[in-house]
Hints:
alpha+beta, T-fold, 2 domains, nine-stranded antiparallel β-sheet, four-stranded antiparallel β-sheet, 9 helices, disordered N terminus
Amino acid sequence: MELSTRDPKLETRNFFLLSTLLLSVLFSPLDSLAQNQTRGVFRQSRILMGTSVEIIISRAHPKTAEKAMEAAFQEVERINRLMSHYRPESEVSQISRHAGKKEIRVSPETLEVIERALYFSRLSGGAFDITLGPVFRLWDFRGGKIPDGEKLRENLKRVDYRRIKFDRSRSTVYLDDPRMEVDLGAIAKGYAADRACLVLKKEGIENFLVNAGGDMRAGGRKEKEIPWTVGIQHPRLRSHFIARIQPQNAGIATSGDYEKYFLKDGQRYHHILVPSTGRPARECQSVTILAPTAMDADVLATTVFVLGSKKGFALIEDLPGVHALIVDRRGSVLLSPKWPAGVLLPP
């Protein structure tokens, strides 16, 4: 289904996945919990996992909301300590540091995320690959530099999800090539959002929105008769929305060619790379995924972006509760065919 046609006149480096019913909350200076109490909406934001993590709670007792938020933020930080490849003591760093040498025993959480990543790698034929780090680091998006062709070809030899070995019974992970490494950057934030939501529910919170750098998970409703509403921005028109989504206990994530990029000789070079070539994917401008979890939405937004609309729609067709909104390379807005009624709204 095609909703609109392209308008390529404007470009922006900014990425927004906005809650349109919460614009005054999301874009105001950081409010304290107390300042929001009279409205029945509680919101806090912290810098975690290298991004802004926001938690919004509606219709809860102030003390319950405060306690739940603190516990949820602590959970996000715990996941970061396990999975950050920037922290030398993390389990992910240990896996990479001991590649080709020994198995690393990991937590159930790290094993769960790696298993899920490998599931989508196999399902997509390698369009998603958590061993892409050596190639990604060759690109200088800030400086606008394209990698040397020979270095790119050499580092591509270090990319292959099939060489990750894990043993569920012993909770171990092993890379069988010493040159390889694992980077969970395209899945861990979504997982952290899911874990935060589990904590909120455990603390008795029913209505919440968790946003981990654009990877979102919604639960319940903003008000009794008003669902959470998320606006999806046009990848070329900063002030325009493509559509609005009202998630019902679901995850949402967007990948776009406007988050990290540079222009050279009229060509856009962005950070979403094809694992088989090490070069930017060219079939889409942005992909928004609605899925049962933020982790799956996070992975699939990247995966579908790499595959393009035809293969991407085919990939998600049989995945329960998964839907895609794609802005293709021409600027046309396309929907997967099974969107649930009432979830997608015009801008």
